[in-house]
Specification:
Layout: E1 13-19, E2 25-31, H1 32-66, E3 75-80, H2 101-104, E4 114-118, H3 124-137, H4 139-151, E5 164-171, E6 176-184, H5 190-196, E7 199-201, E8 209-212, H6 213-225, H7 231-242, H8 248-276, H9 283-286, H10 290-293, E9 306-313, E10 318-319, H11 338-342, H12 347-354, H13 364-369, E11 384-394, E12 399-406, H14 412-426, E13 430-433, H15 437-445, H16 450-455, E14 459-461, H17 472-478, H18 493-501, H19 505-508, H20 513-533, H21 535-564, H22 568-585, H23 590-616, H24 636-669, H25 681-716, H26 723-750, H27 766-772, H28 775-779, H29 793-843, H30 849-875, H31 917-926
Parallel strand pairs: 5-8, 9-13, 13-14
Antiparallel strand pairs: 1-2, 3-4, 5-6, 7-8, 9-11, 10-11, 11-12
Length: 927
């Protein structure tokens, strides 16, 4: 019998020798129950630690989701030992087994922790929306904190107890600092605390990286003056300065901070504008340019009251779908809303249906020369969401409003929306320059605003340089040279603006809609600031130019009139006679067109009859009986020739009969009772007129080639034209020159054959012909046109000088009014801003806007003092005829800054645009 095994008691003690943490041996005795209790306590503590860690991770994840984390990757919540594949109780078991865990852990190393990541399931659009909502909620606090830091104004809570401390990495211009301590007040957003120190975080709730305000302002000023300098470029510059490797997230962080910085500046500007009484809806059109809008009592009445220019540009494109994850909308004081534009989308169709009720005053040639005049809604562009911009600017260059062109070319609805905004704000007696003015006038007249435009006496004229590509009759009706009240203005302002704004095109092509509008708004705002700075210089230069041209041309014109016994009335009558003549010959008489078509059909009949007669007069082949044998008749060659002759004879007969039917049908439809013969007088006259028509077509072809070459030459000299476009234009100029020479050779062959003979032209002469409109003289010889005095080249040149002198005297009158307005404005603005500061000090002495107004006043006062100095230069001109208003130089800037005493004629800060002036020079030489 085997005795039963003795059961081990749980109270038995075990003796163990263990290696201690000091690398020494120690002996211990413990009961099995004590070892098991110790293990259970440790497992319970570990479960509690895991539960607390999991709760902390959930709270941190919620905070990051609320903060609008932008990374598309998973979020790291720190180091944690978690492995769900193992049993919960076996998770932390040591290598030595469960009973030895408490003792083994005292002398062994823990395992390497594993990282657990949590996936953010929100879309990028949702994250952006949450971040925008968080930024918007704290914007008032951010504005106040920024103003307090910028002006060094102590706030009420500066001595308040700080409730929280956090750390951020700071990016500056000259350095990069890690773990900067930020003290946060109770209920204060983190970015509010950062802004008090001149920093701005890259996320709204829990920023870990902040950018110094001075760094953002540096990029802000660079971007305003060089629109092609991107955020990626400034980020790479900062990385290079601070020895940091560049990666894309840094660009996104800088972009987010820069967007918020611009929003803070815009909010401050809006507050200041409300204090100064500037309406954001109308200020750009009816206040931004004092020389246009700041009317004074007892000033001379100007007609037109104001001069504007409008045009479209296709450089500001944006691909459809770019930045679709950014739902933000940018509110610009320049742009017309899409709804305001689309209310005119059906006006073009209405114009087409009602066109029969409106008299056409222009030829179709002008419309064919311009793509914008032929654009319709059916020309939909799907690749780009924004295909360009359509803007309106005053004659001094300040932008008044902008419309975005969407999925289309330069449609009529953009111009109608712009004109409608102008009429609503500015009222009566406005003049607009447009490169397709002849078509625009007709569009406006038949649109829904046609009656309003007529009642308010709206004038639409062509630009000075673009006008030379229009029909000569259109020039006489619409060109600024021949219209009263337009002065020296060329109305090519939009071309200069586009030459500058094209630099922003490289950045906005793939931008979001928010950034597309933000970039353009920033560029236009700086453009307007530069134009206001140069406003007095514009007036001075125009005054000097007008006086110089008057001094030069007046004696020349006086001598010419005395030599030819002419008066001013003669020049005006020449213009009217030429306009009336071109109106008469613009439409070909129906009788002449029928006669030419009849002669052409008769000539075709004569040719068919001659061909058939030539074939029927061929002698027959003769053969003798000796040629025939029992085995052979005609040889193969003779048989083939006979068949070919019969086929040709049949074809000629068929063509003759067909053409005879055409002539008989033509005679029946146009009631010809007797067929014309080549010696009939009507036939001879129609032949001569037909030859003239061919010559006219050749002259029109030559004129078109020359005008297109002039535009290519001017475009090649514009700043902002890219390398590829310049290369294309250079090739086009070379190709056009060869084509012009070919067309000129054809012209010179036909010119002596005309009655009367036309002059033979040289290549160097035709550019001048395009400028003076003499192609129209070459086209027509009926009614003894070449015997008219206005067809003589010298007379036409002197007539142009006369009309330019008239416009120059009008320019002097307009400049006198605009100079008085500017002088009154600078005094008014300084006085108004000082009154606003005093009023705010009395009503709210603790307002942070007081310091902002003082800073703005110091800036505007410095600029206005430059205007005062230039105005004094204008007053000092010998032949100045306007009022001389007193100038107040005693007003001192509140911050004590010294006024700019430098030369008012110093170097331009927008030298890039000087190259665009070549367009104006080319136009001036043409005149």
């Amino acid at each position: 019998m085997v005795p039963p095994k003795k059961r081990m008691s749980t109270s038995s003690r075990v003796t163990m020798t263990l290696l201690s943490s000091s690398m020494g041996l120690r002996t211990t005795r413990s009961s099995l129950s004590q070892i098991q209790d110790s293990r259970l306590r440790r497992e319970q503590e570990q479960r509690q630690i895991r539960d607390n860690s999991r709760r902390m991770q959930e709270l941190l994840a919620e905070a990051q989701l609320e903060a609008g984390h932008d990374s598309l990757e998973t979020m790291d919540f720190g180091d944690e030992v978690i492995d769900d594949s193992r049993d919960e109780f076996a998770e932390d078991e040591p290598v030595g087994g469960p009973l030895l865990s408490e003792f083994f852990l005292t002398c062994s190393q823990e395992r390497e922790p594993r990282v657990r990541r949590r996936i953010d399931v929100r879309t990028r659009t949702q994250r952006r929306q949450h971040a925008n909502a968080a930024w918007k909620e704290q914007m008032p606090i951010l504005v106040n904190s920024y103003l307090a830091w910028r002006h060094g104004v102590p706030t009420v809570d500066d001595n308040a107890m700080m409730s929280n401390i956090f750390h951020v990495d700071v990016v500056g211009i000259s350095g990069f600092a890690r773990a900067i301590t930020i003290q946060q007040r109770p209920n204060e957003p983190a970015n509010g605390a950062l802004l008090r120190m001149g920093l701005l975080g890259c996320s709204p709730l829990q920023p870990t990286i902040a950018i110094h305000i001075k760094c953002l302002e540096l990029y802000h000023q660079i971007r305003r003056r060089q629109s092609s300098f991107s955020i990626q470029a400034i980020t790479k510059v900062l990385c290079s300065l601070h020895n940091i490797t560049y990666f894309g997230q840094l660009r996104d962080q800088f972009s987010d901070a820069f967007d918020i910085y611009l929003q803070i500046l815009e909010e401050i500007r809006s507050r200041v504008d409300r204090i100064l009484g500037k309406d954001p809806n109308t200020w750009q059109i009816n206040g931004a340019c004092p020389s246009c809008t700041f009317k004074q009592p007892n000033e001379s009445i100007l007609s037109p009251a104001r001069l504007h220019a409008m045009d479209g540009n296709f450089s500001a494109k944006r691909l459809d779908g770019s930045g679709s994850a950014d739902p933000r909308l940018f509110h610009s004081r320049y742009f017309i809303s899409e709804a305001e534009v689309d209310q005119f989308k059906d006006d073009v169709r209405r114009r087409t249906s009602e066109s029969s009720t409106v008299d056409s005053t222009i030829s179709s040639a002008c419309t064919e020369n311009w793509t914008a005049a032929k654009a319709v809604d059916d020309d939909k562009i799907t690749v780009f969401d924004q295909t360009g911009i359509f803007l309106l600017a005053c004659r001094h260059g300040l932008i008044e409003c902008v419309a975005e062109m969407k999925h289309s070319g330069e449609l009529a609805k953009y111009g109608l929306a712009t004109v409608n905004r102008l009429l609503d704000v500015c009222g009566a007696d406005q003049a607009i320059g447009h490169d397709i003015a002849c078509s625009s006038r007709k569009t406006i007249a038949t649109s829904s605003i046609g009656a309003k435009a007529a009642d308010l006496n709206l004038q639409v004229v062509v630009n000075a340089f673009h006008g030379f590509s229009h029909d000569r009759r259109c020039q006489l009706q619409n060109h600024p040279l021949y219209l009263n009240g337009l002065g020296l203005e060329d109305l090519e302002t939009c071309e200069r603006i586009f030459a500058s704004s094209n630099s922003a095109a490289v950045l906005i092509r793939h931008a979001s809609y928010f950034h597309w509008m933000q970039f353009l708004d920033l560029h236009f705002d700086q453009w307007d600031m530069d134009r206001y700075l140069d406003l007095s210089k514009f007036l001075y230069n125009n005054y000097v130019q007008a006086l110089q041209i008057i001094e030069t041309n007046t004696p020349v014109l006086k001598d010419f009139k005395q030599l030819h016994n002419l008066t001013d009335v003669d020049f005006i009558s020449w213009r009217n006679e030429e306009r009336d003549y071109l109106s008469e010959v613009a439409t070909e008489p129906t009788s002449d067109a029928i006669a030419v078509a009849y002669v052409e059909q008769l000539e075709k009949l004569q040719y068919a009859e001659a061909t058939y007669g030539r074939l029927t007069s061929v002698p027959f082949l003769t053969y003798t009986p000796a040629n025939f044998t029992r085995t052979a008749g005609l040889n193969a060659a003779a048989r083939n020739n006979s068949r070919a002759f019969e086929s040709e004879h049949t074809s000629a007969l068929r063509k003759y009969e067909l053409q005879l039917n055409v002539v008989e049908d033509f005679e029946r439809r146009h009631s010809f009772t007797e067929r014309w013969l080549p010696y009939d007088p009507k036939y001879v006259q129609a032949v001569r007129y037909s030859q003239e028509r061919q010559f006219i077509r050749l002259v029109e072809e030559l004129e078109g080639l020359v005008v297109r070459r002039l535009f290519e030459l001017s475009k090649a000299n514009l700043a902002g034209t890219g390398y590829k476009m310049r290369k294309y234009i250079s090739k086009a100029i070379t190709r056009r020159s060869a084509t012009i020479r070919t067309a000129l050779e054809k012209y010179n062959r036909l010119a002596p054959l005309q009655n009367p003979p036309r002059p033979v032209l040289d290549y160097s002469e035709i550019v001048g012909y395009a400028s003076l409109g003499e192609f129209s003289v070459l086209k027509h010889s009926r009614h003894d046109i070449l015997t008219k005095p206005w067809t003589v080249s010298a007379n036409r040149e002197m007539a142009a000088k006369y009309f330019k002198l008239v416009r120059l005297h009008e320019e002097i009158v307009r400049l006198n009014v605009e100079i008085k307005r500017l002088q009154s404005w600078v005094e008014h603005e300084d006085r108004t801003m000082l009154e606003a500061i005093d009023s705010l000090l009395a009503d709210d002495p603790d307002s942070l806007l007081i310091a902002e107004l003082k800073t703005l006043y110091a800036k505007r006062h410095r600029i206005n003092n430059n205007h005062r100095k230039r105005l004094q230069q204008i007053y000092a001109l010998d032949r100045y005829t306007g009022e001389r208003l007193p100038t107040d130089h005693t007003v001192i800037a509140p911050n004590g800054d010294r006024d700019d005493e430098g030369s008012v004629n110093g170097p331009e800060d927008d030298a890039m645009n000087e190259e665009a002036m070549r367009l104006e020079d080319l136009m001036s030489h043409s005149l």
